[in-house]
Amino acid sequence: xxxxxxxxxxVSTAKVVSLSATEYKEIIxxxxxxxxxxxxxxxxxxxxxxxxxxxxxLLTLNPGDFNRVWPKGKEIICLP
Length: 80
Hints:
- This protein is mainly alpha-helical and about 80 residues long.
- It has helices at about 1-10, 20-35, 40-55, 65-70, and strands spanning about 60, 75-80.
- The protein has a two-stranded parallel sheet with strand order 1-2.
- β1 (about 60), α4 and β2 (about 75-80) form a beta-alpha-beta unit.
- It is globular.
């Protein structure tokens, strides 16, 4: 049942964007250079994919962390 819902609601409409090993290393270095650690790494990875995909909107319940790791995306980071 869960797989059916995922296929119908996500897989059929979403675009899968992969990051390379180099891109992962760049993000980890970027976060470390900022003196950050912990869960913000996931926000930074999402930002990298959003940037790579040229999204028009990034919806999040935590815009503060996303703005911190992607100040250039401030105009497109929004609360749902």
